[in-house]
Amino acid sequence: MLSQTTTHTSLLARLADGSDRSAWDEFHERYGELIQRFARSRGIQPADCDDVAQNVLLALTRALPTFEYDPAKGSFRAYLKATTLRAVARLQRQKQPGGRLADIEDNLDLAVADTDAEATWEAEWRAYHVRHALRLLESEFRAAELRAFQRYAIEGREARETAAALQMTVNQVYQAKSRIMKRLTELVQQQVQDEG
User: Fold this and answer.
1) Burial class (CB in 10 A: 0-12, 13-18, 19+), 108
2) Helices 8-17 and 170-195: crossing angle, nearest 10°?
3) pTM for the complete prediction?
4) Among 142, 123, 152, 149, which residue's Cα sits nearest to residue 38?
5) How far apart are CA 75 and CA 147, in angstroms?
6) Nearest 5°: phi and psi at 68?
7) Helix 115-137 and helix 170-195: axis angle, to 10°?
8) All domains of the chain, ordered by start, with CATH?
9) pLDDT digits (tens, 9 = 90+) for 84-98
């Protein structure tokens, strides 16, 4: 489980050190799924999504020793997005028959400016935060409450059906949804604030 107290700023500082293996593991655990899901949404084959994630990590490895995070200059989200878009574009161009390295490099900036990619990244970024927050909620709420929230709020099942299936009252289902939704919103807002 990821630490709730580790912010992206401290994680970036640990990554810049280069010798902290646990920082790389935490980065991959935190952002690997986001990068891979975005790559799949851009048409990358599942077998190649790991390559995209590894290329993003490699790019960060090269950049972080001299990188100084300054939120005034741009958000971490934008930096990660640009790095990921470049990795996706590079892989797509490499997979094209007759793709030359010069052509690949010339088109990377175009990939970063792609508005469709921007919308897709933003949707994946929001979904990433919700998935991450839902994992954190597992330690804060009882399993029955989480199941009720899953069935009623996420899957859209009726409150009565959910209550009957989980041997709860309808009021307990409503209360679980309300409490979990409130906490989920708080966690997502905190993550967005921490990560930019």
Assistant:
1) middle
2) 50
3) 0.72
4) 123
5) 35
6) -125, 115
7) 120
8) 1-139 (no CATH), 141-196 (1.10.10)
9) 998 998 888 887 766
